[in-house]
Every structure is written in C-alpha cells, then in structure tokens.
Amino acid sequence: MTVRFDAAAYNFRKKCPYVRKDLLRWFPGHMNKGLKQMQRKLSSVDCVIEVHDARIPFTGRNPVFTETMIGTKPHILVLNKRDLTISTLLPKIVDQLKAEENVQNVLFTNSKDQHCRGLKTLKPLMVDLIKNSNRYNRSEELDYNVMIIGVPNVGKSSLINMLRSKNMRIRHALPVGAVAGVTRSLMTKMRINDDPKIFMFDTPGILEPSVTDIEMGLKLALCASLQDHLVGEETIADYLLYWLNSHAKFKYVDYMGLEEPCDDIQKVLVSGAVKYNRIRRVRDFDGRTREVPDLLESARTMIKAFRTGELGRMFLDIDVLKLRRKTEIQEEMEELG
C-alpha cells in the first residue's frame, strides 16, 4: 500500500535548481547542417509533421520550425509518449495549443503501440490535409512527401518505423535509440504507404541554438532531448527531485529506498545507491581501497524511472496549462500516484 505524505509538512525548495546556461546549450554541427538540408528540401514536401514529447507540449518546441518550416505547408503536431503523461489533460492541452499557438491539428501517440488511436488517425489526416492544400510545384505529382521534424529523442524515427510496419507489413528500417542524436542527417525518403504512395523524410532532432530559460532546458534534459552527460546526471536528477516535491509526487520515496520525502539530492542518491547496490571502489591516498555509493549510477537509475513511467505518469508543463485551476489538475496527478 502506498504511503501518502502531506506536502505542506515539508519545507521544499521554491526555486528551480540553478544551472549554467552553457551546460544546456547543445547545437552541434550536424544540427546546423541538418536544418539547412531541411529548408532546401521543403519545396518537395507536401506536409510537415512536428513530433514533440507529450509531457512538455508547451516547452522546448523549436521556434525556428515555426518561422521557417511550418507556415507554408500543412502541419500536424504529434505529441508522442502519451502513455507517460496524464490522459485526462489531453483535451485541455489541445485547446490551449489552438488558442495560444494556432496549432490546429494535434494528435497524441505512443509510437511503440501498434494499436494506438493517434497512429491510426495520422495517415488519413495527412492525406486529407494534403488533398485540400495548394501543392504548388507538386500539384501534378501522385505521391505524397512528408517531412518529420522535432527536437532530439521525441520518437521521430520510431514513428516512421511504426507507420511503415503498420501500413506495409515491413520491418523497422530506421535506427532508434534512447539517447539524443541518433539521427544525424536528412535521410533518404522512406515509403510508409502504397495507396496512396506516401514517403517520409526522417530528419535529425534540432534544438534552439541558445537556451534562454533554465527550466526549459532542464525539462528537455529530463525528457532526454539533451544528452545526459552534457548537463550532468546528478543535475538532471536534482531537477527531477525539485519538480516531484513541488507537485507532491512522492513515488520516488519508496523507489529510492527513503522513509519520507527529502529535498537533498545527495541523501536521495545515497539511499538509492544502497537499495540498488550501486557501489564503486575508490583508492585513498594511502593506497587502500574502499567502497562508496555510486551517486552517478544512482542518478541514472532515478532518471530512468521517470523516463519509463515507473515514478508515475507526469505532466511537466502543469504550471503552463491555464485552462483549468491548478488545484484540480494537482488532484488528478495525486490520484495517479
């Protein structure tokens, strides 16, 4: 039985942990090259599908896409990893995206689930949008070209693989990974449907060249859109702890072997290291070796638990969702653990 804790009884931090902005800045050469390739290819594309993480629908979407890639083509925003977020909030997310960002076509998907309703809806939606759009130089073409864009590690390649497998009964062809930056260049187009013929371009994940908001950068890091070692696993785990405590999500207490909520990341990681036997040997100045808790491995264990949903479903943008009272949303989150 899950023990319930009263958040009011604890004096948790009120501010997001401070991190130097340069640690959150990741715009390697392949991103700049990939963006230029995508812009050159745009004239041969009929529809743009932007993929983003459903746990952060308002955070971290690259404004460069809005400025240069989306305006002239039919656009669908696919919020992937819906299985890791709070399903009751999805209609409100759609309403706010339409009202504030004029995003008219929003789908929620789980690219690992062949029976996902969003995946079933995606093909007919893109076909309908393309048929009802001005295709300009491609108006006589019978095949449809679709470009997949988004920040790193939101499931772009997985989405193409699943659509290809679902529509054509062909095994997965694109490499995927849990680490940001697997796709590093604009790849050749992949056929994902025969009637009508639909081809998709997979593209590298591209972030903003500079991160202006620290918490935005930490959310992206927590959702694995930044490579962990660039920010630091203990830093990411500390932000996760801050967010969990701020929103009364206390599943981590049992998961990390604690007796009660704690706001000290070092204590949390030590407890987790003891529980999961994450130990490393160090050599003292006198040549003797001793065992100490491996805080890095403990941090990785905690972060992985968030990313796989073991700490419960999360909606990191709860403070950005404006269409309902925050207390109502908080109650739903508590009910989900």
List the helices and strands and how they pair.
Elements: H1 29-41, E1 47-53, H2 63-70, E2 75-80, H3 90-101, E3 106-109, H4 117-131, E4 144-150, H5 156-168, E5 190-193, E6 198-201, H6 214-222, H7 228-231, H8 233-246, H9 251-255, H10 265-275, E7 279-283, E8 289-293, H11 295-307, H12 326-335
Parallel strand pairs: 1-2, 1-4, 2-3, 4-6
Antiparallel strand pairs: 5-6, 7-8
Helix pairs in contact: 6-8, 8-11, 10-11
Structure explained in plain terms:
It is a peripheral membrane protein. One of its GO terms (molecular function) is GTP binding. It is found in: Mitochondrion inner membrane. It is a single chain. Helices cover 38% and strands 12% of the residues. The protein is α/β, with parallel strands linked by helices and 337 residues long. The protein folds into two domains: 137 residues, Conserved Hypothetical Protein Ylqf, Chain: A, domain 2; 176 residues, P-loop containing nucleotide triphosphate hydrolases (Rossmann fold), CATH 3.40.50.300. A six-stranded mixed β-sheet has the order 3-2-1-4-6-5, sandwiched between helices. The longest helix has 15 residues. The chain is elongated and about 75 Å long. About 2% of the residues have low confidence.
Compact overview of the structure:
The chain is of the alpha/beta class and 337 residues long. The strands form 2 sheets. The chain has a 6-stranded mixed beta sheet with strand order 3-2-1-4-6-5, sandwiched between helices. It has a two-stranded antiparallel ribbon with strand order 7-8. It contains 12 helices and 8 strands.
